[in-house]
Design brief:
The chain has three helices and 27 strands. The longest helix is centred in the N-terminal third of the chain and has 9 residues, at about 1-10. Helices cover about 5% and strands about 40% of the residues.
């Protein structure tokens, strides 16, 4: 059985894009074929079981029809200790040979999709159901489409520390109102970018927006740091992208300003602690009130009420030593590596415990 998982995983990568024949009854203009996915940086679900796979190495996004559309009204909680060990066992390897790069809950089936990178760089896509069954997702002969991002760093381009720039071409994905949103870096002087791409993909992509924000922990305006994670909210009837960066500033960008080719200036509403990288953010309800919940790799997970965000009218524009701005609550969970929304009140969490164990668990609506 373990060998069969590896065989299926091997089919995911190293196969050339296949044009396929488009189905007339397919509303998303998908073709049958095998996508050449070189990395899985980010995952998010779109409509009707369509999974978006962000591939930063290829600087492309793939839309894959999972056909996973059997509706589950009440989701069972996920609980799986040592999830990295369990995944490694399913793949016939050791936990040191895998890295979980992202997770996404299918909002229809409530099945958990897990992106994994093997030691040799091969990307794998797995699913986990509420009975803790781990299965490989075959991407051979699937309905899919893709779009290559424009204005990205060359495949061999490196930053001042010698790190590949292409890795940051995609940092996070989101789907909102019929559009795929992509954060990351472009090859422009103001390289922090945000793209809003209509779906179904048409092959035509407008220029991305360039972003600027004040980073209180660094004491300067920045235009070359990528958003690490983002979500969307409404404040007084106006739509905003709420985003966070390395060293954890929280920034609002009016969606009206995120136009093709434009330079958008964000409003920094909080500094939530330096020496930290936010991993994910989601909206949950507690006592019928909306809260932004953010996973952090070195600091405790954080919780911010929508009410606090809405009433904060200023902007941080001076150096911050510790924390400042919007009031937030540090939750009693450190090193939350992955986070996604299970339903309106619960989250699926992957947390690295103090003893080094990597556990998957579900919040109960009150403990996060």
């Amino acid at each position: 059985m373990k060998k069969s998982y590896l065989f299926l995983a091997a089919l995911v990568a190293g196969v050339l894009l296949f044009a396929g024949t488009r189905k007339a009854d397919n509303p998303y203009n998908l073709a049958v074929g095998t996508p050449e996915i070189k990395s899985i940086t980010a995952l998010t679900f779109g409509p009707n079981g369509v999974l978006f796979i962000g591939d930063s190495q290829s600087a492309a996004v793939f839309a894959v029809d999972t056909k996973d559309t059997k509706k589950v009204n009440t989701a069972k909680a996920f609980e799986l200790k040592n999830i990295d060990v369990k995944i490694a066992e399913a793949l016939g390897t050791a936990k040191e040979n895998i890295n979980i790069t992202d997770i996404a809950v299918n909002p229809i089936s409530k099945k958990l999709y897990i992106a994994v990178k093997s030691a040799d760089g091969t990307p794998l896509l797995l699913t986990l159901n509420a009975d803790n069954e781990i299965k490989s997702v075959s991407l051979k002969d699937v309905n899919f489409s893709s779009i290559e991002l424009n204005n990205v760093a060359a495949a061999d381009a490196k930053d001042q520390r010698g790190r590949p720039l292409r890795v940051s071409s995609i940092s996070d994905l989101g789907y909102y109102n019929g559009k795929l949103m992509v954060s990351g870096l472009s090859n422009k002087e103001f390289s922090s970018s945000f793209r809003s791409i209509g779906f179904p993909f048409t092959g035509k992509q407008e220029d991305e927006s360039s972003l600027e924000m004040y980073h209180g922990a660094h004491g300067r305006y920045e235009t070359t740091s990528p958003i690490r994670t983002f979500s969307v909210t409404k404040i007084a009837g106006k739509e905003y992208v709420v985003a966070s960066y390395t060293c954890t500033p929280l920034v609002l960008f009016a969606m009206d300003d995120l136009k093709p080719g434009a330079s958008a200036k964000g409003r920094t509403i909080a500094e939530m602690g330096n020496q930290n990288t936010p991993a994910d953010m989601i909206w949950l309800k507690t006592d019928n009130k909306d809260f932004l919940v953010m996973a952090n790799d070195r600091r405790p997970a954080a919780k911010v009420s929508h009410e606090e965000i809405q009433k904060f009218e200023g902007s941080l524009t001076s150096k911050v030593a510790t924390t400042a701005g919007v009031n937030f609550t540090a939750l009693p969970y450190e090193k939350v590596m992955q986070l996604d929304k299970l339903d309106d009140t619960r989250a699926v969490v992957i947390q690295k415990k103090a003893n080094g164990d990597l556990d998957l668990w579900t919040s109960d609506g009150k403990n996060i």
